[in-house]
Design goal:
The structure is a homodimer of 240-residue chains. Chain A is α+β, with helices and mostly antiparallel strands. Chain A has two domains: 136 residues, Nucleoside Triphosphate Pyrophosphohydrolase; 68 residues, Orthogonal Bundle (Arc Repressor Mutant, subunit A). The first copy, chain A, is 22% helix and 26% strand. The first copy, chain A, is built from four helices and nine strands; from the N terminus they run E-E-E-E-H-E-E-E-H-H-H-E-E. In chain A, strands 1, 2, 3, 4, 5, 6 and 7 form a seven-stranded mixed β-sheet that branches. Chain A is elongated, with a radius of gyration of 19 Å. Chains A and B meet through strand 1, strand 4 and strand 5 of A and strand 1, strand 4 and strand 5 of B. Strand 1 of chain A pairs antiparallel with strand 1 of chain B, so a sheet runs across the interface. The structure holds a DNA duplex (27 and 27 nucleotides).
Chain lengths: 240, 240
DNA sequence: CCAAAAGTGTTAGCCGTACACCCATGT
DNA sequence: ACATGGGTGTACGGCTAACACTTTTGG
């Protein structure tokens, strides 16, 4: 923290959100189509300016709500990192604090605002993005992959209750690998403090009904703060 | 990225640096004594305003140099995370981007600037800090601990050349545990792409001379960017 | 010779992987 | 009956943890 000898420069500060979900077995990211310059017509991450009196997470949650129409925070939101301020926006220096949302598939407002239109895109098919958003997306994907190894946040992609197979398909989509259903089942159910059985079963699907699980209390959020609980030993993603 | 309907708020943006080193087997952090209000007389992390045209890392490196007198970046510097802007400074909203430096023990300028005086403090004995710096320090310590598990950055605490025992003492200091010298030796030297022998040996110490190592090329920085190389399998810290 | 630290060998047990096998439902 | 997916048992291999032991220096 400095004294004020050099007049403190002030920067416009934005928040961007990399919202990830799993749809039909594929990892998807929420992108908006820019209807204004710069980068008009290009895809970009949802985001916007931090307003006076706002915390970073608040601002990210607000921008997400404004651009998708979701009523409340649909999943787990955390800070990813900050980018800039130099050379990322042709209009001038802007610092952006990127955020990562891991959420179940939620509907985005069909008719976006007058300036932007949001939709899900499979990450494997994302075209060129505006600003430095391709870099931010890369970092977000890497963060998501490692989050799944060491934290119970894979469940953030599912609803409140889910089967082991649904959870496994999340891991497979995010990591881009196939996992052995039997070993995954044993590992997920056998990790203390991770899952708890609801007692109910699925029905109507093909095959034997599956037990429904939810996150164990120790693995859930604590007072709005992301849990520090760790999966130990980790669920390891196959390396290459 | 937004259109400009709401006049974009502009924030003063600072960078703070949590500089960690290992001295005499203890993890130490660089702190400055504040000579001006607010928090006059209290300890704080070194840091200061981001200037126009600066990147975040540049600003962090500049502040570090200004407050310690080091000529060049003495170790590995990376972004930790952003804090604020609300309620962290009594003078008004300030966004700060915290950084983490892992470095060998380097001397700090005895006579600091007119406003601040920097020195190393063992992390176990850090008293109350100014602003939200205690929170930032906690996050930095946690980050440092996990960095050692998955990256070769433990070596950033050592000089260019070091013995396995010196490297082990880094792990022990950061993790606050004792490690078996024999198993650590095997693991460190046996991990492909981590260390390479210099060919020279120490001399003059008690006991058998030790071989000197340096980081293998694959584990070093690439063009100023922190390496993404990963220790796989990780060097695991004992849990509890 | 003794202490001290470096480095190697060896073993037991845990855990991840692979895969055979049984269970319970929909059609 | 059969297909489909849920769930359990089991064996092998690699890795960690624990520790006995040898090597090489300084005092």
């Amino acid at each position: 923290m400095p004294e004020s000898h050099p007049a403190p420069e002030r920067f416009p500060v934005t928040v961007d959100v990399v919202a990830l979900t799993v749809r039909r077995g594929e990892l998807n990211v929420l992108l908006i189509t820019r209807l204004i310059e710069p980068f008009r017509g290009k895809l970009a991450l949802p985001g916007g300016f931090v307003l006076a009196g706002e915390e970073l997470l608040e601002a990210a949650a607000r921008e997400l709500a404004e651009e998708t129409g979701v009523g409340h925070l649909p999943g787990h939101l955390e800070q990813l990192g900050s980018y800039g301020p130099k050379g990322r926006d042709p209009r001038g220096d802007v610092l952006t604090v990127a955020h990562l949302l891991l959420a179940p598939d939620f509907p985005v407002l069909a008719a976006g605002s007058d300036a932007e239109h949001a939709a899900w895109y499979p990450v494997a098919e994302v075209p060129e993005l505006a600003f430095d958003h391709a870099l931010i997306l890369d970092d977000a994907l890497e963060r998501a992959k490692s989050k799944l190894e060491y934290s119970p946040l894979g469940a953030a992609f599912c609803g409140d209750e889910f089967t082991i197979a649904q959870l496994r398909s999340v891991y497979e989509a995010v990591w881009g690998t196939r996992l052995d259903p039997r070993n995954f089942h044993r590992k997920a159910t056998g990790t203390p403090g991770f899952l708890e059985e609801t007692g109910t079963m699925t029905t109507g699907d093909a095959g034997r009904p599956a037990a429904l699980f939810r996150l164990a209390p120790a693995a859930r959020m604590t007072a709005g703060q992301p849990t520090r609980a760790v999966l130990n030993p980790p669920l390891m993603r196959p390396r290459e």
